[in-house]
Amino acid sequence: MSYKILIADDEPNIVISLEFLMKKEGFQVAIANDGEEALAKVDSFKPDLLLLDVMMPRKSGFEVCEALRADPARAGLRIVMLTAKGRQTEVAKGLALGADAYITKPFSTKDLVAKVKSMLESA
Amino acid sequence: MTSSWFVAFLATAYLGVLFAIARYGDARADAGKSVITANVYALSLAVYCTSWTFFGSVGRATSGGLSFLTIYLGPTLMILAVSVIVKMIRISKSLRITSIADFVASRYGKSQLLAGLVTVIAVVGVVPYIALQLKAISASLDVLFPMSAEASEPWWRDSTFAIAAVLAVFTILFGTRHLDATERHEGMVAAIAFDSVVKLAAFVMVGLFVTFGLFDGFPDLFQRAAANPDVAGLLELDSTRAGTWASLILVSGLAILFLPRQFQIMVVENVDEGHLRRAVWLFPLYLLLINLFVLPVAIGGLLHFGGREVNPDTFVLTLPLSQGAEGLAMLTFLGGLSAATGMVIVETIALSTMVCNDLVMPWLLRSQWHNLAEKKDLSHILLGIRRGAIALVLLLGYVYFRAAGEAYALVGIGLISFAAVAQFAPAIFGGMYWKAGTRRGAVSGLLAGFLVWLYTLLLPSFAKSGWISRDFMDAGLFGWPWLKAQALFGLGGMDDITHCLFWSLFANLGLFVGVSLLSRPNAVEASQAERFVDIFRLDPRAADSRLWRGKASVEALVGLLERFLGPGRAHQQLAAYAARHRVADWRKLSADAQFVHFAETQLAGAIGSASARVMVGSVVEEETLGLDEVLDILDEASQVRAYSRELERKSKELEAATAELRQANDRLLELDRLKDDFISTVTHELRTPLTSIRALSEMLHDDPKLELADRTRFLGIIVTEAERLTRLINQILDLAKLESGQAEWTTGEVDIAEVVRESVDSLEQLFRDKQVAISTELPEEGSAVVLADRDRLVQVMINLLSNAVKFVPGETGRVEVTVKADGGQVRVEVADNGPGLSPGESELIFEKFRQGGNTLTDKPQGTGLGLPISRQIVEYFGGRLWVESRPGQGATFVFTVPLPTNT
Amino acid sequence: MKRSSPTRQRLAALALFGIPLLTYPLLALPEGRTGGVPNVFLYLFGVWGVLIALAAWVAETPSK
Question: Is the Cβ–Cβ distance between B214 and B323 less than 8 Å?
Fold first, then answer.
C-alpha cells in the first residue's frame, strides 16, 4: 500500500516542489494552504505523515501540531515541521509540542525524501 | 458672709479633686496608657500663669496700662523657636537630665560646682516667687474674711501656714510617689492641666462679669475710662518706655524656658516631641485669652471703687463681692488657689530635685559615703532627701512670706525672679550651639551675672523694703557713685529691670565667651559638648565606647544601680538594656564602655549627672583620657560622620546611575529583541524563495528525464523566485540605508504633477494587463513644485500605484490619482476601489514585512517593505504618509510634501 | 540624620516677624479709638491673634 502524505504550506511554489517530490516517490498527496485547512484535511484525508510549515495564515504550524497531539486517536500520525526561521528556540518549541522531526528551509530534497521514508518505515 | 468653714471645705474639696486627677493620671501611666496628650501638655505649660498673673496682672495694669502684656508676648514669641525646645528635650531624654541645673552641669563636664551654682541661683531667685503665691492665697482669704486681716495670729493658727503645709504634703505625695526618682510625674502634669482650665475659666468669668455686667461691653467701658482723667492714661502706651517694653519681652521669653518649673514641664515631663505642634499655638492662645480681660477688669475696678482704698491686686475678688456675686467670688478664689497651687507644686518639685541632687547628694557622698555604702538600698534615703527638700523649699517660701509681708521685695519679685533665671541663657544657649564653651566660662559668666543681679535688683528690693540701708543705691557702694546699684557706671534713665538685665547679661555673656575662649576644656567637657551640640546628628552611642577606657565589673555597677534606684527598678532597667543588646540575661552582660555609660545615665536620672559620674568613678577603674586624645576621637568620629555622609551621597548617586544603566540596558535589550526579530523575519523572507529555488533546481538536476512541460514550469518558477529574492535584497538594503541615514539624496525642485505623470506612464502596461482604469487629476504645471529627490518620489508613487493595481479586481478595477497644492503643502491621493482595510490593518501595513490582504487566494507577491520605505522617504521630506480606508470601500493612500516657504 | 524641618523653620520665621510687630517703634503707630476701644488694644490683640492663628496653621499642617 502507498502512504498518504499531507503537505501544509502557504507558499505555492514550495507546495509545487513538495508535491512533485512526494508523488514521484509514489505517495498519495493532499495539499492544505493554511492551518485550519490542514486540520480539516487530516480528518478527511487521514494522512500517515504531515509536512507542516510553521508560518501559515489562520493557524500556525505550532498550533496545528499542538491540536493534533492533544488527540490520542492521532498518535500514529508522523509530523515533520518545516520552517524558514532557523532559530534554535523554534526547533526546540516544535519538538516540545510533539513534532517527530524538524527540517529547516531551504532543505536538501534527498535528505527530505530519506527522512520521510525512514519515518514511515519505522512506524 | 461666707463662712470660713465653707471656704476651707471648698479649698479642701478642690485639692481633693486635684489629688484624684493626679492619682488617676498616675494609675493610667502605670498601666502604660498615658493621659498626657498634646492638649494636656499645652495646658500644663500654662503653669506659667501663676497667682501673679491671676491677681497681679490687674494690679500692674492699674499703674502701667497694657505693659503687663509683655510678660505674655515674650513666651508667645519664644515658643515659636520650636527647634531650640526640641533640642533641649532631645538632649535631656538622651542623657536622662532631670533639672535645669543638671542640664548646665552635664554640658560642662558634669561639674558639681556648676550644678550647685545653678541650684543656688534658682533657689535664691525663685523661693521669693513661691512666697508670692502664698501671699496671694493669704490676700484672697483676707478679702473673703476681712476681720482676720488685722489680727496678727500666731503662725500655728495662720491659714497661710496651713495652706503651705497642705501643699507640701500634696507635693510630696505626687512629686515623689515612686520609689524610683527618675520617672516623670504624669499624674501631676494632668492635675496642672486641670488647674490651668480652672484658672482660665474663673478669670474669663470675672472678665465677662465686669465687662458685660458692670459695664455695657468693651466700647462702653473704654469710653467711660477715657472720660476719667485718672484712668485715661492707661489706654495709651507710654512710648518713652520702649526700652522697658523690649526688655520685658526678652526676660519673659527667657523665663518660659529657664524657670525651673517651666523646664520641668516643658522638657522633663514631655512625653512626645510631637506635642509641641499643639503647644506652639494653644499655649499662646491660652495666654491671649487670660489677658483679654485684664485691662477691662483693672479699669472697671478703678472706675468702680473710685478713690477708695482697695488693693488693685484683689479686684478680681472685690469686684464680684461688691456686687454680692458670692458664687463668682468663690470661683475666683478657686481660680487664684489653682494658679498658686499649680506653680508651687511644680516649682517645688523642680527645686527639690535640684537641691537633692546638686547640693545635698554631693555633700552626702563626700562626707558620709562610708556609712551609706553599707546600706543595700539607698533609694529610700534618696526619696527622703527629696521629700525633705520639698518641705524645706516651701518652708523657706513661707518664712520669706512672713518676713516680707507687704514689702516691695515680695510684690516686685515676679520680674526679679525672671531676671535671675535669665542668667542661665548664655550658658545654656552657648552650650547647645557652641562647642567651645567651657566650664570655666560658664561658671564665670553665671557667677558674674548672678552677682550683678543680686546687687542691682535683689538687694535694692530689700533696701526698698527698708531691710537694709539704701546707701549703696543712693550714693554707691563705699560712696563711689559709679557703683550706685541701679545706675552702675552712671548708666541711668532706665527702669531697674532693664538696667539689671543689661549689666548682668553683659557681664555674664562677656565672661562666658571671654573665659571660654581663653580656657581649654577637659576631656569630659569636650565629649559632652559634642553630645549636646550634635545631638541631632550623632548616634549618642557611637563615640561612647571609644571615649571611655578602663576596667569595670558588672556586679559593682549593678550594685550601684540597685542601691540608688532600688533593686526592682534597677533590674527592670537592666533587663531592658540586655534586651536591646540581645543578651538573654542581664547578669551575663559584659562591663564594656557602653554598659558603664548606661549605668551612669541611669544613675544620672536619679541623682544628677555630676553625682552619677562621681559614683560610677568610685567603682570602676577608669583610665583617664587626655584632652588631646578625646579631641582626636571626636574629630575622628566627626570625620567618620562626614565620610558616612559622603558615602551616603555616593551610594545615592550610584543607585541613580544604576537605575539609569538598568533603563538603558532595558532599552538595549528591547532594541536587541527588535533587531533579533527583524533578522529572524528577514531570514524567513529570504529563505522562502530560496527553498523553492533549491528544491526545484535539485529536482531538475537529479532527474534528467523530467518532462519538458514540468521542466519549463519549474524553470519559470525559479526565475520568478530569483527575481523576488533580488527585489527583497535590494529593498532591505534600501531600507537599512534610509533608517541609518546613509541614503544618498539628490534634492532639487520637483514638480509632483510631473512625477505622477511619469509614474503612471511607466506602469501603463501593468494597468492594461489587468484591465484596471487609471485616471489622474493634476494641478497646472509648476504649481506643485517641492524640494525633494525626484527619483525617490517616483519610487513612492510607483509603490503606491503598484499596490493599488495589485489589490483592485481585474476589469472593474479603478485607480484615481489626485494632486492638490494648498495650505503650504502638496497633497497626493491614490484612491482605489479594492477590498479596503480595517482600522487595525491601516497601521499594520506600514510595518516591515506586514503585507496587506491576508487573502485566502494567492500570496501577494510584494516584499512587505514597499510601504515602510515609502513612509521613510516621505517623512524625510517633512511630509506624512497614511491610508484612509474602510473595509469594502476601497483605500486611499495619501501623502503630503510641504511646499517651500519662500516661493 | 535630622535636618531642621520646614515646619520649625516657618515657625521661627513667624517669631522673627512677630518681634518687630510687637515692639516699638511700630507699636507707637496705632493711635486713637475705634468704637470707643483704643486702637493700640485692638492692634496688640489683633497681631497676637493672627500670630497664633498662623502658628496653628503652620504647626498643624502635616509637612509632606
Answer: yes
Nearest CA in chain A to B678: A85
Name the minimum distance, in Å, from the CA of C35 to any CA of chain B.
6
pLDDT at residue B149 in the model: 44
Q: Cell 509648476 belongs to which residue?
A: B782
Q: How many CA atoms lie within 13 A of B442 on its CB side?
A: 35
C-alpha cell belonging to residue B56: 497681679
Q: What is the pLDDT of residues B59-99, one digit of tens each?
A: 888 888 888 899 999 999 999 998 899 999 988 888 888 88
Q: Residues 6 or more apart from B719 whose CB is under 8 A from it?
A: none
Residues B390-423: b if buried by 16+ CB within 10 A, e if exposed: bbbbbebbbebbbebeebbbbbbbbbbbbbbbbb
Contact A17 B696 (CB under 8 A): yes
The CB density around residue B723, as the number of other CB atoms within 10 Å, is 12
Instruction: Please tell me the pTM assigned to this model.
Output: 0.65
- Residue identified by cell 489587468 is B770
Can chain C be said to touch chain B, i.e. do they have 3 or more Cβ pairs within 8 angstroms? yes
Neighbours of B591 (CB within 10 A): 18
Q: Which of residues 696-725 of B touch A (CB under 8 A)?
A: 696, 698-699, 702-703, 710, 713-714, 717, 720-721
pLDDT, tens digit, 9 for 90 and up, residues B622-673: 666 666 766 676 666 666 666 777 777 888 888 888 888 888 888 888 887 7
B780 Cβ contact list (under 8 Å, min separation 6): none
- Note whether B691 contacts A106, CB cutoff 8 Å: yes
Whether B237 contacts chain C with CB within 8 A: yes
Here the cell at position B516 is: 571660654
Q: Is any Cβ of chain C less than 8 angstroms from the Cβ of B69?
A: yes
CA distance B537 to chain C (A): 5
- The C-alpha angle B730, B731, B734, rounded to 5 degrees, equals 90
Mean pLDDT across B572-579:
83
Kindly determine whether residue A106 and residue B710, on different chains, have CB atoms separated by under 8 Å: no
* Rounded alpha-carbon distances, angstroms, from residue B552 to B372, B434, B563, B592, B617: 21, 33, 17, 8, 10
From the CA of A3, how many Å to the nearest CA of chain B?
Answer: 21
Is residue A37 within 8 Å of A77, Cβ to Cβ? Answer: no
The whole-angstrom distance between A39's CA and the closest CA on chain B is: 16
CA distance B590 to B593: 9
- Residue-wise pLDDT for B719-746, tens only, equals 988 888 888 888 888 888 888 877 788 8
C4 with B77: Cβ contact below 8 A:
no
